[in-house]
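Late entry, evening session. Most of the bench is empty. Finally got around to the prediction I had been postponing all week. Sequence below, unchanged from the version circulated by S.P.
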Amino acid sequence: MLMKKMYLCIYYCSAMRNVVAFCLLLSVTAFCVRAQVCGCTDPMALNYNGKAMVNDGTCKYAHSVIKAEVLGKLDPLIQGTSSLLYWNNNYWTYNDHNDNCLYRIDSTNAATAETLCMNKIRNFDTEEISQDDEYLYFGDIGNNSGKRKDLQILRIRKDAIRNKVYKVDTIRFSYEDQTDFTARLNATDFDCEAFVVTKDSIYLFTKQWVSRKTTIYSIPKTPGTHIAYRRETYNVKGLITGAIYIPEYQLVVLCGYDYDKRNILSALHPFIVLLYDYKDGFFFSGNKRRLDFGSGVKAQIEGIATSNGLDFYLTCEHFTTTKMGITFDFPAQLYRLDLRKYLLPFIKAEGK
């Protein structure tokens, strides 16, 4: 009877969240109908409406290709780079398996400038590092087969990491709608390699091997065991592997790459997705713009970071495969993107 009540409670809470989301959408729609000021408010969009005062998330954009500058190859020690973080006035990366060290990267040439190891970190498949004002959050959340029941994010105070006297807090979670834990390598929609930390929550962006979409789940950013609640889904047409949140501009930038299990070499095409002018933490409610790397670029992009919201740095891990007797080898590298053309108008508007 107790289990039945628990399941009814979970079902009721999930239903209520759907009702709240529907009511929010309904209220916005009603406002738009009444005031007649809703539409695409981004002048860079194809369907820009100069009379619109409220962004309804319908902006459409022309296909855009961005030029990625290669700054250098990464040190052999960090061939498995899984994330990138701008912290303490420097860029840091972290390997996805069997390592517990942060590596400071020289942002001019990709050389390793410093190593900072943390003996208390357990790294089974750490795929993302994020932060707030006080803590770094290490996401041991990689789940390529969809079978894991030990997903966790480790939280450590920033000042304690530098002093090497620290306590590790654990944030455990499970997805509210995952019921099947059968192992299916690279064939699950419950993998995750990206998350951002806001004032009171952690938002996970899934890496969906089957649908090529990404779904946002939310959990509290406090230690304990939590249910990751499903919020919204967007068709990015690829695999999301990293995320950066810039709170002063209410801007999120995702990174990832195209994937085709039938021909991996036709995939590995990197892209980023800009999310901005959204409402109340619903990151897909505003502008959603995908920018592709040049067609000749092949890289397993894993991490993204920025210090100013205009210049973005990305790492890709080493990838090698053999097809028809031919070995293809893509090195681990550091890239730089200048996104002023796409973000400066928005950032200036937000700064007013």
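Two things to note before I forget:
The first strand starts at residue 38 and ends at 39.
The chain has one domain: 67-350.
Will write this up properly tomorrow.
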